[in-house]
User: Fold this.
Amino acid sequence: MKSGNNQKQKGPAPKDDRLIFLLFTAQLKLKTYLKNALLQEGVTTTTAQSGILFLLKAKNGQTMSELSQVLSLDNSTLTGLVDRLERAGFVKRNAGTADRRASHVFITEKGYEETDRAKAVIRRVNEQIKADFTVDEVEAFKKILKSFFVRFGAQ
Assistant:
């Protein structure tokens, strides 16, 4: 929240420092809130599926391996997500010409439309997260979150 005092507090951390509990609980609440917000706007994909569509919109025709690496998902998890996207008509898969084992994933027109709907909802929720915080507080929060990738690995 906004405060007039931007100085770091000195001294020992509070005894009840349940950061993992707070992070997991916040993640669960945000995931549930976002899922409901997406559904209210007619978005039928999950956030994980939307992430795949966002990546394909930026660079269509990525291989399953490329998507798996960027999303830090194992192949079986990604395959399930892409299977559901394909059944819904949001993507299509084609075997690669150079390596037929390398399946390329392409976003369809229906997938583009779903991506646009999801992006609008996600932007709105992102703004709700930042509401009532100063720019400096948001930047500090982002710095903490990004530090997890360094401290605990990107996978």
User: Anything to note?
Assistant: The chain has a mean pLDDT of 89. Residues 10 and 136 are 19 Å apart (CA to CA). The first helix runs from residue 19 to 40. The domain at 42-150 is CATH 1.10.10.10 (Arc Repressor Mutant, subunit A).
